[in-house]
Design brief:
Blueprint: H1 19-28, E1 30-33, E2 38-43, E3 50-55, E4 70-75, E5 95-100
Antiparallel strand pairs: 1-2, 2-3, 4-5
This protein binds zinc ion.
Length: 104
């Protein structure tokens, strides 16, 4: 523990959303398209920790018609400590939606 750093007690785990989260995530999150998945990485708009979400669903399988572009629900999946978090979960509890472009 260092005393000369600003002490910011860890954010408690709370499942919350805010319009601003989606706005910030739209700017800060970078989608990387793979064959069967989209990987979204950026900083959580609530806690500011790096978060990576992998979206894999049947919409990305080749035998299914391509999905419409649309809003996808995302949650913070950072690795940082957030007190009160249920066992087995990651992140700070923040969730938001991100507009995902369809394949042209
Ligand atoms: Zn977070």
């Amino acid at each position: 523990m260092r005393d000369d750093e600003p002490v910011s007690s860890p954010l408690p785990y709370v499942e919350v959303t805010d319009e601003a989260y989606a706005t910030q995530a739209a700017v800060g999150f970078r989608p990387q398209q793979f064959e069967f998945a989209v990987v979204l990485s950026g900083r959580c708009p609530r806690c500011g920790h790096p978060s990576t979400t992998t979206l894999v669903d049947e919409a990305y399988r080749k035998d299914v018609p391509p999905p419409d572009p649309g809003y996808r629900p995302l949650m913070c999946e950072c690795e940082a400590e957030h007190p009160g978090r249920p066992a087995g979960l990651r992140g700070c509890g923040a969730y938001w939606t991100l507009w995902l472009e369809g394949e042209a």
